[in-house]
Every structure is written in structure tokens, then in C-alpha cells.
Design brief:
single chain; mainly alpha; Cytochrome Bc1 Complex, Chain D, domain 2; 7 helices; 0% strand; elongated
Length: 135
């Protein structure tokens, strides 16, 4: 009986240790985007003739995400968060609404831009520019 109890306790300890190890080594990227944003439609998709999206990117995003969107901006090394390559298939596969949420609402080290970019059309121009980075 004592042997079974010791075996059981050893198994529990191994499982707990493994779970702890996995929790600290698996990337904590699980950025949950609310359904409301996932399904948002970009009424200005493909538009940015005036270069507003590029201008906003240069003003607010380039210092961290880099000139080409590779995540290699001058401030990138100061951040704890691993920056995504905005031109990657992983990023580009997201809906416009998901990009909107992550770019405008933000979280953690990704700042919120709702007050800095107040105009809704301008926000979508930024999303359109993020799309253009992959081309």
C-alpha cells in the first residue's frame, strides 16, 4: 500500500513539474480578439490613396515594428514582447477586424491608439497600410 502511495505521489509531482515547465516555455501569445472585432468589416478596404495609413504607421508604429514591418524597429530591443513580422503569413491571415483590434486597442506593451488616432477612416487606412507591407 505504501509503495502505491509513493508511486502515486511521484506521478503527481512529475505531472505538476511538467505542467509548470510547459506553462513557462510555451509562448503566451494567446491574444484573444473579441468576436465583435473579428467580424468587423473594413469599409475602406484597399484604399489609401492619400498615404494616410503610411503616415500614421511612420508616426506611431515604425519605431517598434520597423520601416518594412519586420519587427526590427529602433525600440524593438527595449521590449519584452516578441514583435511579429507584419508581413508574415501568420499576421496577414488575420481578418481586418483582428488587425484593427490589435493595432488600435492594443494590450500590454502594444499601446492603445484610440485617442491618438481618433478618426475611424484613418484607423482603417492604417490597417490597409499593414496589408500593403506584405506586397
Amino acid at each position: 500500500m505504501k509503495t502505491k502511495l509513493n508511486s502515486f505521489l511521484t506521478l503527481v509531482m512529475v505531472v505538476l513539474f511538467t505542467m509548470t515547465l510547459v506553462a513557462f516555455t510555451v509562448p503566451q501569445d494567446g491574444w484573444v480578439v473579441p468576436e465583435k472585432y473579428k467580424n468587423m468589416k473594413n469599409e475602406f478596404a484597399g484604399e489609401d490613396e492619400d498615404g494616410i495609413g503610411e503616415e500614421l504607421y511612420n508616426q506611431h508604429c515604425k519605431s517598434c515594428h520597423g520601416k518594412e514591418g519586420y519587427g526590427d524597429g529602433t525600440k524593438a530591443k527595449e521590449l519584452e514582447t516578441e514583435l511579429r513580422d507584419l508581413t508574415s503569413d501568420e499576421v496577414q491571415a488575420q481578418t481586418d477586424g483582428e488587425l484593427y483590434y490589435k493595432s488600435i486597442i492594443g494590450r500590454d506593451e502594444m499601446p492603445n491608439f484610440e485617442k491618438k488616432i481618433r478618426d475611424e477612416e484613418d484607423r482603417w487606412m492604417l490597417i490597409n497600410y499593414l496589408r500593403a507591407l506584405a506586397k
